[in-house]
Amino acid sequence: MLDIPPEDIPHWRTRLADVFNDRGEQQRMLTPEELYFVFSERTRSRIDYSYWAERYSTINLEASTIGPLYPLWESQRLILAEIGRIQLERTESHYPDGVLIDILKARQLGASTLCSSILCHRTTTHPHTFGLLASDVPDNSAFLYDMYERQLDHLPWWMKPAVVERVKNDEIVYDTGSRLFVGASKSTRGADKLKRGSIEGKKGQLGRGRTVAVAHLSEIATWTNPQQIDSSFLPTVPYSPVVFVAKESTAQGWGPRNYWCQDFQIAKTGRGRFRAIFIPWYAESAKYRLPAPLSWSPSAETLAHARRAEEYGPRWMHRPVSLTRDQLYWYETAREEADAKDLLSDFLQEFPADDEEAFQMAGHSIFSVKTIERIKSQQRPLCGMVEVKTNRQLGV
């Protein structure tokens, strides 16, 4: 197979632009070289997501223009690397399942964009593949659909299957037998077919009646009925090496009654089908930083945060973690602004040093945020445990 450099793809787009007209009618025959190029790109892209994404994945850039997904942010590379580790582990152990992940993340680190790209890759390069994307509310599901649709519409003809049916914010059907469904915490099952574009339907029936191989579920922490993921959706996902399911969200609340908190903790232990991925705010060093004045010294809270990141960050980053001076200055400045607006709890749950801190700072507590932080900063590692048994005969 060919290994076409990404910078050569625009040339091929221009060269092959006259093969089909706007109505999809072929205008000329392909040369042997062009035929081999198309065959090679389709074959290579089907088995190599990174190759496809680097050349064909198009996203919105800074809410102002469109451009290529690559180069990936470090936060996105971390997710992709963890997916690779899970694939390798399950292949070597002959485990009969695919990649199912829970992504706990800080804000705006590209997790949704990456998952949308993976979903587009699988449904456009593989036949007979059913995909699902869903978020907490219809408007957010529509936003995910727009990301997916943008990538689809910017694919060149040799990478894009023919669209048989397209219903905005609801469903896309390809001539390859693949299709994409769109749902929400209030799912589309049971909806009037004439009103499907509203993403409204029968509550609590996400994915029921369908077999889904790839899925992206977003903002899990704010779903009104997240239990339907376990009761209705996951039974539709077969045990198969080709399965890919990503659930992603920031932290919202904690404790035994919080679905996302408990779901992530189970994935973290390695029990069940899902594996846990935590992407901290400092994973993308170019995004969250500000030039620190020469006269600035970090506060005690900022230094405690840095120490916690250095201690717990390597588990998730798979490398040593040391926050830069500019990162610390951004953190302290943003924290002070949030505190002044009485939004410190929200800030700490969305920009935590580690996954435990994300859930500890979410929700409501009888203790103030600063009290919780003080206790956390003063805690010491557990040295041992002592079991005390009562003896009723001795009265103790």
Features:
396 residues, 39% helix, globular, Rossmann fold, two-stranded antiparallel sheet, 3 domains, 13 helices, 13% strand, alpha/beta, single chain, 8-stranded mixed β-sheet
What does this protein look like?
This protein is of the alpha/beta class and about 400 residues long. The chain has three domains: about 1-45, no CATH class; about 60-280, P-loop containing nucleotide triphosphate hydrolases (Rossmann fold, 3-Layer(aba) Sandwich); about 285-380, no CATH class. About 40% of the residues lie in helices and about 15% in strands. The strands form two sheets. An eight-stranded mixed beta sheet has the order 5-6-7-4-8-9-3-10, sandwiched between helices. It is globular and about 90 Å long. Residues about 190-200 have low confidence and may be disordered.
SSE topology sketch:
Elements: H1 9-15, H2 32-47, H3 49-56, E1 58-61, E2 65-68, H4 74-92, E3 99-105, H5 111-125, E4 130-135, H6 138-153, E5 163-167, E6 171-174, E7 179-184, E8 214-218, H7 228-233, E9 244-249, H8 259-269, E10 275-279, H9 300-317, H10 325-340, H11 344-350, H12 355-360, H13 369-378
Parallel strand pairs: 3-9, 3-10, 4-7, 4-8, 8-9
Antiparallel strand pairs: 1-2, 5-6, 6-7
Helix pairs in contact: 2-3, 5-6, 9-10, 10-11
